[in-house]
Amino acid sequence: MDLRQNLQSVSARLSPTMRRASDTILRDLRSIPFQSIRKLSASAGVSPLTVIRLTRKWGYEGYTDFQTAVRDWLLADAAA
To answer: What is the pLDDT of residues 17-31, one digit of tens each?
Structure first.
């Protein structure tokens, strides 16, 4: 299972607010390595804390850890 599929499988069980953040992230996953948590949370209409909680539910230590994982996934995908 790839990164997007892993995130989607957890997202099905989220609260409406976290689901909104999840949908925003999944819609444009490629921009995550370049997007600040404040900008992302504003575009999703949620607080930065909600984004942090979401990334923790996905198994990351926080938003920065999640950004790194997405960047690594994108690099591996580009190299394939």
So the answer is: 999 999 999 999 999
Domain limits of the chain?
3-9+17-79
- Nearest Cα neighbor of 55 from 16, 27, 18 is 18
Q: Report pLDDT for 70.
A: 96
Write the CB contacts of 33 (distance below 8 Å, at least 6 apart in sequence): 67, 68, 70, 71, 74
Find out if CATH 1.10.10.10 is the number for domain 3-9+17-79.
yes
pTM of the model: 0.90
Q: Quote the tokens at residue 10.
A: 């957890």
Task: Round to whole Å and give the CA distance between 40 and 45.
Answer: 9
* Integer Cα distance of 43 and 65 in angstroms: 20
